[in-house]
C-alpha cells in the first residue's frame, strides 16, 4: 500500500523544527538537500557508517507507526519498571527493545522509512541514537550514550546465557540505574513527537498520585 502525504500536527520541539518537518510533508527530500543543521550531521553519519542516504518524508503511515512504536516502548518499559526481569542479561535485552522502539519512533516521525531503519539501524541502539540526535532529538545524555554502547546490538543480550559464548560487557548497569535513563528517553520521545502516553499508562499515573 502506498504511503500518502498529509499535513501533520506540530511537535513540541521548537519553531525551526516544526517548520522543517512541515517541509518534509510536501515531498521526499534527499539528505543532501536537507536544510542545515541536519544535512551536515546526516552526511557525517552516512560516511561514518557507510550507509546509503535516506530520503526523509513525513507521511500518515509513518506518523501512525511512530505512535505505535512509542506506545509499545512504554509497554515494554512498564515490565522493566515493575522488576519482572531478575537476570541482568534479560533486563538489558528488554532495555534494548525499549530503546529501539523509542528511537525508531522518532526516526519515523521525522521521515525515515521503516525499511531504511531496518536495513541500516537495525538493533544498534548507538546508531539509532546518533541518527535521532542528528535530526532534532537533542538528547545528549552521557548515561544514555553509555547505555546505548552497552546495548548495541541488543540481540547479544538474548544470547548472554549461552555458556559457549563470552559474556558481553554490561558496563555495570543495574535495573535501578537503567530505569531513570530509559524513562528520560521515553519522556523526550513524547516531547519531540507530541505523542500522548498510552491510555493505561495515564490511568496508572493518575492512580499513583496522592
The secondary-structure element order is HEHEHHHHHHH
- Tell how many strands the DSSP assignment holds: 2
Tell me the strand percentage band.
under 5%
Instruction: Label the overall shape.
Output: globular
> What share of the residues lie within helices?
55-70%
Largest sheet: 2 strands, antiparallel
Write the layout of secondary structure elements.
Elements: H1 15-23, E1 29-30, H2 38-49, E2 55-56, H3 60-81, H4 88-110, H5 114-121, H6 125-134, H7 142-151, H8 175-193, H9 199-208
Antiparallel strand pairs: 1-2
Notable traits:
single chain, 210 residues, two-stranded antiparallel sheet, globular, disordered N terminus
Describe the model.
By secondary structure, the protein is mainly α. The protein has a domain at 60-199. It contains nine helices and two strands. It has helices spanning 15-23, 38-49, 60-81, 88-110, 114-121, 125-134, 142-151, 175-193, 199-208; strands spanning 29-30, 55-56. The chain has a two-stranded antiparallel ribbon.
Amino acid at each position: 500500500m502506498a504511503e500518502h502525504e498529509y499535513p501533520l500536527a506540530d511537535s513540541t520541539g521548537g519553531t525551526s523544527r516544526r517548520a522543517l518537518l512541515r517541509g518534509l510533508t510536501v515531498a521526499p527530500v534527499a539528505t543532501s538537500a536537507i536544510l542545515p543543521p541536519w544535512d551536515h550531521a546526516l552526511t557525517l553519519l552516512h560516511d561514518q557508517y557507510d550507509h546509503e542516504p535516506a530520503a526523509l518524508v513525513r507521511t500518515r503511515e509513518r506518523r501512525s507507526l511512530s505512535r505505535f512504536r512509542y506506545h509499545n516502548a512504554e509497554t515494554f518499559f512498564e515490565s522493566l519498571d515493575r522488576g519482572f526481569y531478575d537476570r541482568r542479561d534479560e533486563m538489558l535485552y528488554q532495555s534494548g527493545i525499549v530503546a529501539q522502539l523509542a528511537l525508531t519512533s522518532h526516526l519515523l516521525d521525522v521521515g525515515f522509512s521503516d525499511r531504511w531503519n531496518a536495513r541500516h539501524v537495525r538493533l544498534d541502539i548507538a546508531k539509532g541514537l546518533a541518527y535521532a540526535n542528528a535530526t532534532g532529538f537533542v538528547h545528549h545524555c552521557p548515561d544514555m550514550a553509555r547505555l546505548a554502547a552497552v546495548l548495541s546490538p541488543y540481540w547479544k543480550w538474548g544470547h548472554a546465557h549461552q555458556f559457549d559464548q563470552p559474556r558481553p560487557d554490561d558496563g555495570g548497569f543495574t535495573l535501578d540505574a537503567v530505569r531513570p535513563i530509559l524513562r528520560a528517553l521515553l519522556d523526550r520521545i513524547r516531547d519531540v513527537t507530541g505523542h500522548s502516553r498510552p491510555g493505561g499508562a495515564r490511568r496508572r499515573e493518575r492512580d499513583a498520585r496522592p
